[in-house]
């Protein structure tokens, strides 16, 4: 009995071991069977291949491919051109653009649904976010988001230009651009600026410094022509890490030709309109101690009345006060940055005009206090003059005015002018 029991116990243990082995075989067989359904995740229907799963997933994903510019996280982005959204294999249905402060930026989806861009310029040094949605041919949606920062004032430059858009100016008016930061890559910046004339005249730029670039033709502009200035400086690197932000087209009209010649020795000014003399005016120019510059000068500003203080241009007395301080100089027109004007004079005796040069370097014409008499010579000349008209001074005992003293680049010969171009 006892031995039988022992035998029976051993038999049971053997069966258990065999079962365990068989069970292991079965488990292994199950794993091997599972290899036929590679990487099938929980819930995958029995007998479904991964290829079928991928195909099903692909059918549920939009084929539309959205691209947002600039790239997410970009710095120093353009305020004009960089922000845009495009899509392939689909059409845009919604695009929103907001600043970090929550302000909405207006934009427009193209008629074909393939692109979007803002309708106006962005602000500098601002973080913007773009969220875009598109659908493919099956109506499935795709989404894309991006955030970027526009160029800061510290990392950007602008060019302040003259003359103004839509203005009518005289034949001597150059296009003068003054940059608010020094330009080191002049070639790149000049490549982004074009000036052309309907007259077909060749127009060339000249760098007076790292902050000033002027454009003019060989001879004065043709009367009646139209000049176009195009600034395509957006994104142009003018100096290390400093980018342009302007994208603008400016046009101005050249009026009739008026060139007036001041003969300091004869003390007269001859006014020519379209080549014909229209008036000869007696003047009083700079005294022997304060001579007037010679050369071709361009009227850059007009003031019916203005203050002239000698201290601002270096004419001071022993106490440091201006040798003159006239608060209501009538019919004044600027000819140089350093303070040369052609203007009315009511404080001098009428006898000086045409006979004696008495000024501190300006050209004076007879006038009355208050600038209220249109019959005065100064009033007539003021009314007949445009910004950009030319006043030529000759026969003075002074030197020729520097080309960069005012808008007076005409005092530089054409070959020297062209040598200062980076075009």
From TrEMBL:
Keyword flag Protease: no
Pathway per the UniProt entry: Glycan biosynthesis; Cell wall biogenesis; peptidoglycan biosynthesis
Short name of any one Pfam family annotated for the protein: Big_10
GO terms under cellular component: extracellular region
Signal peptide: 1-30
Catalytic residues (UniProt): 343 (proton donor/acceptor), 362 (nucleophile)
An MF annotation (GO) of this entry: peptidoglycan L,D-transpeptidase activity
Bias (Polar residues): 62-80
Top-level taxonomic group: Bacteria
Region (Disordered): 35-80
Keyword Methyltransferase (UniProt): no
InterPro entries the record matches: Big_10, LD-transpeptidase, LD_TPept_cat_dom, Transpep_catalytic_dom
Keywords attached to this entry: Acyltransferase, Cell membrane, Cell shape, Cell wall biogenesis/degradation, Lipoprotein, Membrane, Palmitate, Peptidoglycan synthesis, Signal, Transferase
The L,D-TPase catalytic domain, residue ranges: 258-394
Full protein name: Lipoprotein
């Amino acid at each position: 009995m006892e031995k039988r029991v022992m035998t029976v116990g051993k038999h049971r243990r053997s069966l258990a071991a065999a079962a365990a082995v068989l069970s292991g075989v079965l488990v292994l067989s199950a794993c091997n069977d599972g290899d036929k359904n590679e990487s099938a995740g929980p819930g995958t229907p029995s007998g479904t291949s991964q290829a079928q799963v991928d195909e099903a997933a692909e059918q549920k994903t939009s084929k539309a491919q959205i691209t947002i510019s600039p790239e997410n996280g970009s710095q120093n982005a353009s305020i004009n051109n960089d922000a845009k959204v495009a899509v392939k294999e689909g059409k845009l249905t919604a695009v929103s653009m907001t600043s970090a402060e929550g302000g909405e930026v207006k934009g427009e989806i193209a008629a074909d649904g393939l692109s979007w861009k803002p309708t106006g310029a962005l602000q500098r040094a601002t973080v913007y976010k773009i969220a875009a949605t598109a659908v493919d041919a099956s109506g499935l949606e795709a989404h894309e988001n991006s955030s970027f920062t526009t160029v800061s004032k510290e990392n950007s430059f602008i060019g302040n230009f003259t003359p103004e858009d839509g203005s009518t100016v005289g034949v001597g008016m150059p296009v003068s651009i003054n940059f608010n930061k020094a330009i080191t890559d002049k070639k790149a910046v000049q490549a982004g600026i074009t000036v052309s004339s309907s007259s077909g005249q060749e127009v060339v730029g000249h760098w007076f410094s790292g902050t000033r670039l002027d454009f003019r033709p060989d001879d004065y502009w043709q009367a009646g022509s139209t000049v176009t200035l195009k600034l395509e400086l957006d994104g142009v690197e003018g100096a290390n890490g400093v980018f342009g932000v302007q994208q603008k087209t400016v046009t101005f009209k050249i009026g009739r030709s008026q060139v007036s010649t001041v003969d300091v020795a004869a003390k007269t000014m001859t006014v020519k309109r379209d080549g014909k003399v229209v008036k000869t005016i007696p003047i009083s120019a700079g005294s022997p101690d304060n001579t007037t510059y010679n050369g071709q000068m361009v009227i850059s500003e007009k003031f019916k009345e203005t203050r002239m203080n000698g201290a601002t241009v270096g004419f001071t007395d022993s106490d440091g006060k201006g040798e003159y301080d006239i608060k209501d100089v009538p019919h004044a027109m600027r000819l140089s940055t350093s303070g040369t004007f052609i203007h009315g004079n009511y404080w001098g005796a009428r006898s000086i005009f045409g006979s004696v040069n008495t000024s501190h370097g300006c050209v004076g014409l007879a006038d009355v206090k208050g600038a209220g008499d249109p019959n005065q010579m100064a009033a007539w000349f003021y009314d007949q003059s445009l910004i950009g008209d030319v006043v030529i001074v000759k026969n003075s005992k002074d030197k020729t005015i520097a080309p960069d003293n005012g808008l007076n680049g005409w005092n530089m010969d054409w070959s020297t002018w062209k040598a200062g171009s980076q075009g």
